[in-house]
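Field: sequence (string)
Field: structure_tokens (string)

Example rows 1 and 2, in order.
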Amino acid sequence: MKLERLLVLSLGSVAAGTAIAAPLPADTGLPWNLSAAQVTATCKQEIARTQKAIDAIDARAATDSKPVLLEEIERATADMGDALAAQVLLMNISVQKDVRGASAGCVDEVNAFSVKLSADSAVYAIAQGAMKTAPMPAERRLAQLYAESGRRTGAGLPAAQRAQVTELLDRLNRLQTEFGRALGEDKSSITIDAKEAESLPPAFVRTLKPTTGGYQVNVNESTATQFLSNEQSAAARKRFYVVYNNRGGQRNVKRLADAVALRMQIAHALGFKTWAAYQLDVKMAKTPDRVLEFLNKVDSVLLPKARTEVAVLAAMKKADGDQTPFASPDYNFYEHRLEKTKYDVDEEALRQYFPVGKVISSVLGIYQKLLGVHFEEIKPAMSWAPGVTEYAISDSASGKPIGWFFLDLYPREGKFNHFATFAIRAGRGASPGGQRPVSAIIGNWPVGEPGKPALLSHSDVVTFFHEFGHLMHQTLSRAPYETLFGSNVRQDFVEAPSQMLENWMWQPSILKEVSANIKTGEPLPDALIKKIIAAKHVADGVYYSTQAFYATYDMRLHSSDTSLDPTKLWFDLKSQMTALPQEPGTVPEAGFGHLMGGYDAGYYGYLWSLVYAQDMFSVFQKGGLEDPATGMHYRKEILEPGALVEPDALLHNFLGRDVSFEPFYKYIGVSAP
């Protein structure tokens, strides 16, 4: 089974008056201050210890009880995952480059061990036997997932073929690590002159590094939206956009192409026609054809809307006296202007209502009330870098401690460059050596100007609420084994709970709750809330057709029997499926981290799971957005089971009926077939 378990998000604050029984200490037991040499040494030691334990279990496979042996395997690998939790995460978070490098090496070693374990024929036989003889449903479910993993790594193949698949999977894991590390280490920037800086928000300019006659702008996730949405100069926008879409460069393009080729070899060796077919074999969607049909439906209906949206923006550009064709670097700027003029929504003015402290405390308050939990900040935090905060989680009703999470919200050199939550250590509790979960938000919010708090966009707030939903999925699980814990569900369901929760950030009462003007303390006024909601769907055509394009690119890349040029495929599909052409001279796929971070032949899940998300939201619309009873029903039926139950059954238990597509089609403006 895969031991490096990537999750999705977390957060925290104090709920006044909530009783806490035996609060957790700051020490999670994870060693954040390891040197590079210590990371390497402990990684090798722990892998060797675990391999020795697995070898001993393998030797008993022919005689001992299969369920007992499987539990021993699970315990040994979970212990290893817990022992190396810090070592594998430091690649993304350490302030020291040599530690990040050593951690990347450890990740490769852990992934190689994981592949070897999954392909172990004795472990595979143990899992198959336990599926038949395990007395408890959780044990049989655990056996099923181990057997699936073994089948997908060639554990049932003859030794020579099995060794070949293992070697290919090991090479693939190394490529993926190198791809992600190249993005994390990227230091791309552009320079702008004083004139070009005039249209940028003053608070943003004050965070930039001055140069002779201008400023240096770092090109990354934390600066992209503010720069492209406000920069008046088309030339400066283009410079930024081109650099942003060349992060990772040709080396990452080659890594992606090599990974796609390896994936196809692996799929063929395991009896699948394509990598997409291999991946979808254990997902809800099941077949690439079903996914592509779904994506084509979404795109065909929304592309005309996208073209209309872009035509409006192109007319605005021409009205400015710029007769050049409307291009991708223009989109954010004119879409932002449209919101300001037609809908009177000024994103920079809106930021004044979302100071980071208010957003964090309010979001935490909502989740605490809705899900019956309590968050308490631990000071001082025992973490990996200055500015990282730590929280303890407990159950509100009983006061029993649940686990911890960390917040690492702002960019720094070498850090993971997107926004996600990592399940640092999964929980478990059924067998001896039970463990409490630890998670972290690793994010890149825009920094505040010196001496002042960061101010967030509404989009930042929506993302935060979404990601916190992932944390709850992970933290509140009650599954007895780490393999079954939290968000280790089928991948095309994993986004659904958090996508459902995004709806909260568009409700007037909730928007008032999470906002407070930085100067007056007043919440968002009703008139501005109405404008925000009115503008919500202004860019749906562009947004969802682009999502359909990303997903189709991923599926096509991994569904072809012949090798495809990743860049040519990107340009061809984007011109067919979106209203915006790709800027020449860019290699955007070099920065498409999802394809090398676990979402290969799986990106469609963002749109696919939205079907489930909107149907689940209908339950809260009836029961109440902050109704504790409805929230507890959601906690019990969706969050707590983890992977103990297939998503179809989770949904049926929560909804009380089969899933309906109607709320999804209504949400994105598509007529139901």
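Row 2 begins here:
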Amino acid sequence: MCGITGFWRPGAERATAEASLRCMMDTLHHRGPDGSGAHLDIDRRLFMGHTRLSIVGLETGAQPLVSPGDGLVLTVNGEFYDYKRVRARLACDGERFQTRSDSEIAIPLYRRHGLDFVHHLRGEFAIAIFDPRAERLVLVRDRFGVKPLYYRFTGDEFFYGSEVKSIIEHPDVPAELDSRSVLNQMMQVMAPGTTSYQGVEALLPGHMLIIEKDGERLRKKTVQYWDFEFPVASEHEREIDPEVCVEGVRDILLDSVVTRLEADVPVGCYLSGGIDSCSILGIATAVQQSHVKAFTISFEHESYDELSIARQIAEEMQADHEVLRLGADELYGESFETVTRHAERTFYNTLAVAKWHMSKRVRECGYKVVVTGEGSDELFGGYPFFKRDMLLHAPQDAGRASGIEIDIFRGAILAEEQQRHPAWDDLCGFTPSWIQPWMMTLAAIRPLLSAQVREETEGFDPIAAIAETIDPAKVRGRHPLDIAQYTWSKTMLEGQILTWGGDRVDMANSMESRPAFLDHNLAEFAVRVPPSLRIKDGVEKWVLREAMRGVLPGALYKREKFAFMAPPAHTSESKTSGLQKLADKWLPSERVEADGLFDPEAVSLFVRERTTDDPLLARRNDIILNHLIQLQILRETAREASPVGA
């Protein structure tokens, strides 16, 4: 895991280019504190930077890597798994390597296969590789978007980076919040490919971006090389032995976890009270044949705390269990502000702050790597809104659907009233339940916008904008559960779970997380498991439970989905006070008016009257206040990064 950044400006002056690159790299120091390197191609005005977190090939893995024969230049953020097998195969064909790093395999694979080299890579990665013979810079993002990658392209110039902050750090890149993104962030759901900042885009998961020289200008082409694709519904109707599905999930998951334990540093595990992280810990314990280090977050509110079952799991597996207890002092204040700046977008729940504290504790314990359970819900139908959609739109397959109306879900991840939107109805045949609570949030936040933002977003429908990013060919004719899983995975998995719930808060403390479920081999198998085996008789992730039955404690095997969220502010006086102090700092009327995002009177009224005895409304008000404060923080971040001249 590292940070990559750089730019290509064929017609630009070169006087300050190296200094600009160094500034961009400095913003990514937290991603790579163990070393840094730069490739400076003065004649081409091409500059590539890398900051390194050493995990594999500790002594010889410095980047950029330059191939001595053909001058290929490579920088990588992330991990390639099975790299030793690939290296051995390439060595048998006469290939010689300069380092012991997993990253280096990308060079000979590119040389042999051209742009198809990505199909020979397994892992989580963001790559920048320059081919001097073709005058071509290729950026690649892994299949699910575990590793971030952003860019700005104008035709005259191209900038890229692992985080947006590295791009807007360049003195010639303007740093302005995008009004449309303000609207999307206030309702929680970003449109795929967008960022908080004007002119800066996210490379989509499973895509590569090809930048080529065209005289004194550049041209770009985007290619999708992989997708999380479900078969048409009729293919699920074939007779499939459930045991074949169970054994397939078990075998591929075992392989996925084993490959992610490969490192030249110790590897730990995150442990919540769910079957996902428990499965990972159980497999890791069997493989390592030793006491695995397990890390658990504990909250003081029992409705949100999973410590008791996590502790039971840790004891049964004889894990070396580290528990981090978090309250209002840790979830708000300076930590809240710090995490917002790292996330570069808003988050509805302070789970992001909690995970930032946990990654910090991981590093304090001497670990750089943990294996995590993210992605299991996306592959096997684990969220309550998936169960709701199956019950509503495929009742013949749903069986009994208990447990979806748990109160703490309502207003946050489940809408209390059914919502519909024509763009989603046209795309999917129904409006997926996962987006419905955010549609209700959108209705509540529009009056808070400033006149300027309302004018700039007039006629813009953020709900439709999200739907427009989904390829209709990937949802038409699919089972309702497949549609719900696919649309969530193309939006909220990458934009939420893997950003402020994953990479950005982990790498803020120079710590790499490896989500074993998001192995493309497992995903390609999971999409062919019939919906009735993913959610069977109302039991979510049934096929995974059966696959891991020998690992899971009995109580956990039978347990329904738990809400892995931090307690919202309204659940205690101390958290209410913590959020209010942030509001007092970031939302005074004069500051709100000066920043121009929101209407100061409307915001002031909302802050004064947000307290309510209705827990559902209180939950939504906490979400809105989080977003208001965070957008003010991002506005200040943009102001600090404003260009000061070339």
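free_text_note (row 2): DSSP finds 28 helices and 19 strands in the chain.
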